[in-house]
Amino acid sequence: MMRSIAEQKVDELGGRLSVLTRQRRDHVKLEDLLEDLAGTTGAAQGQVLLRIYRLVFPHAFAEESVLWPMMRRVLPDGHELTLEVEREHQEVNELVTALEALEADDPAREPVLARLVEVLREDVRDEEDVLLPRLQAILSRARLRGLGLAWEVVRRTAPTRAHPVVARRPPGNVVAAVPLSVLDRVRDLVDGAVLRGPERVGPGLRRVSAGLAGLAHRVEHLPVMRRGEDPSTRPTGH
Ligand SMILES: [Fe+2]
């Protein structure tokens, strides 16, 4: 039985720069945000959600374009292992897209939010207890640090919002990264302003936000961004 990443010291994980340490750091931040989310409503909930999106979407995007392809190259059962977490990521993308379509006071949000929190926690458990220890077992400290750097570089420039239609695998997701990142980061600024002071920004900026969301979803429908997809992570209802 391999030891979970959650139970190891930083030095055992390959040091501060190791991909395993960086992963765990983000997972701990996510758990803090999920605890903040519990009990919030309205604009406060929107702000916590925005922080969760900015953490999890670039994080998962960099996993899908850097880490999982590496796992498929080096592990004989890499395909099945990574497919499981790609399915979880796909569900997260679909749940967040569903949330975006619901008004802040819609009672239908409650079960969607509950499931979102549940899937995010399952995803962390699968990675820390199963996938990452497998990677740790075969890579040297130097490789873990190199992978940490590659993952970090992609993470910093990756899309920050849900994109259920984009492939969860290269090459589609890599092609999608640049235009969607730009659109997402503008949406983050606009939505942040709307949530901070709805009375100050007025309906104009809300329309800008909705327009950017629509544009991002049209961009992700471009066929080239769906290449590489496993059929089981195609969005439901498309
Ligand atoms: Fe992760």
Top keywords for this entry?
238 residues; mainly alpha
Reported for the largest beta sheet, the result is: none
Structural class, from secondary structure content? mainly alpha
Uncertain spans, ≥5 residues at pLDDT below 50?
none
- List the secondary-structure elements in sequence, H or E: HHHHHHH
Number of domains: 1
Helix fraction by DSSP (H/I, runs of at least 4): over 70%
What is bound: which ligands?
fe (ii) ion
> Could you tell me how far the N terminus lies from the C terminus, measured between alpha carbons in angstroms?
40 Å
- β-sheet strand percentage: under 5%
Number of helical elements: 7
Q: Specify the overall morphology.
A: globular
Count of β-strands: 0
- On the 0 to 100 scale, the average pLDDT is 90
Describe this protein's structure:
By secondary structure, the protein is mostly helical. It has one domain (5-233). It is 71% helix and 0% strand. It has helices at 19-37, 42-74, 78-100, 109-138, 141-157, 172-196, 198-220. Helix 1 (19-37) packs across helix 5 and helix 3 packs antiparallel against helix 4. It is globular. 34% of the residues are buried. Residues 23, 27, 59, 63, 127 line the site of fe (ii) ion (FE2).
